[in-house]
């Protein structure tokens, strides 16, 4: 019998496993066995999940995904979007895998990310007392539309907005204040990742600047950067999805990842 070719898709902030449903179907159509885990407490209603997720570390998220990866019968392709892109890198440094795709990734320790668009969306979280112990609630529709889904079809944007859940305030202190974090939660062991790495940026991303993806690719011996034209932050949705999959297809074929 043929060993399944696994893909693990890791969602981003305020999301859940089904958020990447369209991307999952694209990989399934290519013959892969696809796993779309939901990060810790992201499956709970807002009032239940908020107090539980508030103090979760990005390392906790990574621990859960490492457990999934190690349960598989062959090394998977790791694909992460946004915060999931950072988590995928943390997992790749610890678990056997076939390759890594970090799409519009959140920054690892040492990568500059304090761009105006990022600060406009997340800045309000930091003006409250002890933000590392508070949940990070979803942003407003106005900011979601202007900064995250600025090129996405509005109907799809509203659908995604309605499904958002609270996330960890601790994670959003670990990322920008990595230099104060004794645990070094967002520090990636780049040298430990020797498989092919593809970092995906988006031309019109107003949340995570495309320079973050470029800087991420440069950290790896086998890193490459590609950019999705006319796309906002959501490269795995809507009109951007076929372009993103085409870039991944070409990279996987050329680098012989799960081929």
UniProtKB/TrEMBL annotation:
Pfam families: Abhydrolase_6. InterPro entries: AB_hydrolase_1 (IPR000073), AB_hydrolase_fold (IPR029058), Carboxylesterase_BioH (IPR050228). One of its GO terms (molecular function) is hydrolase activity. This is Alpha/beta hydrolase. It comes from Mycolicibacterium agri. Keywords: Hydrolase. Residues 7-237 form the AB hydrolase-1 domain. Coiled coil: none annotated. It comes from the Bacteria. The keyword Transmembrane does not apply.
């Amino acid at each position: 019998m043929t060993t399944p070719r696994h893909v693990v898709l890791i969602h981003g902030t305020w999301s859940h496993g089904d958020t990447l449903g369209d991307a999952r179907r694209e990989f399934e159509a290519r013959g892969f066995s696809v796993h779309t885990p939901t990060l810790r407490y992201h499956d709970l209603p807002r009032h239940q999940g908020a107090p539980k997720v508030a103090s979760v570390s990005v390392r906790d998220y990574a621990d859960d995904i490492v457990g999934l990866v190690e349960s598989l019968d062959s090394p998977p392709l790791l694909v992460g979007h946004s915060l999931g892109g950072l988590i995928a890198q943390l997992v790749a440094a610890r678990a056997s895998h076939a390759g890594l795709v970090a799409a519009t990734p959140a920054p690892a320790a040492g990568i500059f990310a304090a761009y105006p668009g990022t600060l406009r969306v997340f800045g309000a979280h930091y003006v409250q007392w002890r933000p590392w112990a508070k949940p990070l609630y979803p942003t407003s529709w106005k900011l979601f539309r202007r900064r995250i889904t600025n090129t996405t079809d509005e109907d799809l944007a509203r659908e995604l907005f309605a499904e958002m859940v609270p996330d960890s305030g601790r994670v959003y202190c670990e990322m920008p204040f990595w230099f104060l974090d004794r645990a070094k939660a967002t520090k990636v062991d780049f040298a430990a990742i020797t498989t092919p790495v593809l970092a995906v940026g988006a031309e019109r991303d107003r949340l995570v600047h495309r320079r973050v993806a470029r800087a991420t690719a440069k950290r790896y011996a086998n890193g490459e950067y590609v950019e999705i034209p006319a796309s906002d932050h959501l490269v795995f949705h809507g009109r951007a999805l076929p372009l993103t999959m085409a870039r991944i297809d070409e990279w996987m074929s050329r680098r012989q990842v799960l081929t």
